[in-house]
Amino acid sequence: MKTYLALLLIACSSSVALAQGNWDKTPYQTKSLANDAIKDVFVNTSGGSISVSGAAGESARIEIYVRGNNNQELSKEEIQKRLDKDYDLQVTVNNHEVHAVAKRKKNFNIDWKRPLSISFKIYVPREVATHLNTSGGSIHLDNLIGAQEFSTSGGSLHMDNLAGRIKGETSGGSIQVNNSKDIIDLETSGGSINAKNCQGKIRLETSGGSLHLEALEGSITANTSGGSIQANNIKGELVTGTSGGSVNLSAMACSLNASTSGGSMHVDMRQLGKYVKLDVSGGHVDLTLPANQGMNLNLSASKIRSSNVSKFTGEWEKDHVKGTLNGGGIPVSVEASDNLNIVFN
After folding, report:
1. Among 165-169, 207-211, 285-289, which is the least confidently predicted range?
2. In angstroms, rounded to a whole number, what is the distance separating the alpha carbons of residues 263 and 192?
3. Where is average pLDDT lowest: 18-27, 96-105, 126-135?
4. Would you list the domain boundaries of the chain?
5. Distance CA 311, CA 256 (A)
6. In the chain, where does DSSP find H-type helix?
7. DSSP class per residue in 273-338
8. CA geometry: angle at 204 spanning 123 and 138, to 5°?
9. What is the pTM of this model?
């Protein structure tokens, strides 16, 4: 069965902000999907925001939100008139799939001073895969199990309570991911990344923002080319680095490889994993290590200061240390261009 529905998305990127604040408004149109047992959602649009939710208790449906330029309220008649004149909008439902496509008509007489901001929410069963693309708005995903693939050229990404393969990117917005697991691969070219309470194989990349990591567990790679890194309560393995900021890592219980080319580093290791490797070429290092764990130390800095050192065997000089602590064990390597301050706690 096929259902055709006039729907979808924005005329130009200047109206992106409008789409992101429309969720508290009355939808322009609502379409039930309760009888379609949706398994896949496909959206390809040139503008507004997209939200897909598998929240329990919600009936499966699409809600369409339409506003005029500068958040102008329009009558349904005026909206329909502009849609008919300037947009090709279609949603099809077939074989348990929703396909939504929005594109501007190839019409050189379009009045770009009268664009529409069209956003939509889709409520579906929890076990659903998504394939989403917008060139201007934000993307929201929550309470879904399955493969999620999504991208935006100018908006933020928001995820909560997802499980499966999660792959998303934005060219100009921030990323927030909470309470999610399995395979997480997220990238932004111009915003910060916040990740909290996630598990699995995690990759986070930003070219222009900071990283904030909280309560993550698994194999984690998180890098930024232009911001600071803050992390707390990380388990498993963390590989992280920045070319232009400081690094602050607390309550670490993991294997760790951390680097910065433009700031200082503060690391509190509560429990060692398989290794610790720190590389700091632009600032000092403050490092706290567990006093009773066996380690092989290989440290280099302009000046090394330490406290509570016991059961050490090897060479301990002003600017380098090489030897074993508590009989040896976990390799701990630090290279710092400035001072290294170590506390064994």
Report:
1. 207-211
2. 18
3. 18-27
4. 1-155
5. 24
6. 16-20, 76-86
7. EEEEEEEESSS-EEEEE-TTS-EEEEEE-SEEEEES--SEEEEE-SSEEEEEETT--EEEEEEESS
8. 35
9. 0.90
